[in-house]
Amino acid sequence: MDFVQTLEHHLIDHVFFQWKLGAASIPVSRLTVMMWISAALAMIVLPLVARSARSGRRTMALSAVEGLVVFVRDEIVISNIGEEGRKYVPYFLSLFVFILLVNLLGMVPLDALKVVGVRGVFGTATGNIAVTGGLALLTFLLINIAGIREQGVVHYVKSLVPHGMPVWLLPLMYPIEVLGLLTKTFALCIRLFANMIAGHIVILAFLALIFLFHSLWIAPLSVAAAMGINLLELFVAFLQAYIFTLLSAIFVGGAIHSH
Amino acid sequence: MDKLLNPDVGLIIWTVVTFLCVVAFLGKFAWKPILAALEAREGKIKDDLRSAEESRRDAEKSRLDLEAKVADLQSRTQSLLDRAEKDGQKIREDLLKVAREESSKIAEKTRRELTEEQRRLVAELRGDVASLAVGAAEKILGKSVDKSVQEKALREAASDLDAWSKAKN
């Protein structure tokens, strides 16, 4: 197995099994399962935490989650969208938590589960361009839906180009602005994907050095470097979840408040 | 490696479906109760702060009221005291004046009565002395003195007496 094959094995999605729904057969891939695990974790833990919020009992987990909720609400949503952003707070909270959990779960070496017979459940779903593309697509939809909802279709379409533009410039400006909107969300997709996959590639490359040099003496260096990158990835997992959420909020804020 | 950069449509769909499920589920069962509890607490804290501020302001106001009342009372007490003192002073002066007048009146009256009494006594005495003197003279001479001589002697004696009483006065 050469390096490229190893990389592909680790980083590229594989169809895991075919889900038979009547006549249709839906492919379920490795990264889909990883997303489901993250989603299940969030959907089990957070409602449990919310239960103590409802009963008024202060627990450590509730305080931690409340810190996150207050941060996302005040620093990400309201400071970038304004008071109208309050109804989007649950979306951004879910976005942040989902990306963060997928990022973090990708760092857990679930390959090790093969000793108990669970094979092939591993990988960072946010290190796949389709996953980040799907999330960016939802952000793109949210930008436009929020813009139309707050301003009305006509006003929103008008607000796409800067106010007071000469009429003869409009045929030029509209494609540019729409392209800008697409580019912004495309950059969102690429940023998360590249950040999450880069660390994995570097870690694999460091570990591959051992096999490349056919020497055990290179191992301490490789492991130390891989560990350093791992720590960096841990930081990046939080950072990129924050950046994706923050930029989504900024774009939505821009669509709601025409300039 | 181009597989790495080719998005798989199936995975995009799975991402969207999974994430929307997460949004719907967490929105209903996690974020809604947590946000509600949070906002309730924040509202309560805000209310508490406001009511604390209000009661602080109330306390300040009643303190100022009380202070004003105390100052008012003090000034009123002071003015009452001043007036009482002035009144007392005046009454004392009046009383003194009346007493002085009264005493001087009594003294005057007494003096007048004494003078009157003295004059009466002098007149009485003069009559007595005159008749005594005449009687004594008649006895000495053994005969009645001529009326004109008698009168002349009497007048002289009276003027002597007058001079004596004047000198005495």
Question: How would you portray this structure in words?
Answer:
- The complex is a heterodimer of chains A (259) and B (169).
- With 259 residues, chain A is mainly alpha-helical.
- Chain A has one domain.
- Helix content of chain A is 73%, strand content 5%.
- Chain A contains 8 helices and 2 strands.
- Chain A has a two-stranded antiparallel sheet.
- Chain A starts with a helix and ends with a helix.
- With 169 residues, chain B is mainly alpha-helical.
- Chain B has one domain.
- In chain B, 92% of the residues lie in helices and 0% in strands.
- Chain B contains 2 helices and no strands.
- In chain B, helix 1 runs antiparallel to helix 2.
- The mean pLDDT of chain B is 88.
- Chains A and B meet through helix 1, strand 2, helix 2, helix 3 and helix 4 of A and helix 1 of B.
Biggest sheet record of chain A: 2 strands, antiparallel
- Number of structural units classed as domains of chain B: 1
- What is the arithmetic mean of pLDDT of chain A? 88
| Average predicted confidence as pLDDT of chain B | 88
Main β sheet profile of chain B: none
DSSP, total strands of chain B? 0
- Assign a percent range to the helix content of chain B: over 70%
How much of the sequence of chain B is in beta strands? under 5%
Give helix and strand order of chain B, one letter per element, not per position: HH
Number of strands of chain A: 2
**How many distinct domains of chain A?**
1
Give the strand order of the largest sheet of chain A, numbering strands 1, 2, ... along the chain.
1-2
How far apart the termini of chain B lie comes to 160 Å
> Which class do the helix and strand fractions of chain A yield?
mainly alpha
Low-confidence stretches of chain A: none
Seen as an oligomer or otherwise, the chain set is: heterodimer
Number of helices of chain B: 2
Number of helices of chain A: 8
Q: Show the largest interface.
A: A-B, 49 and 34 residues
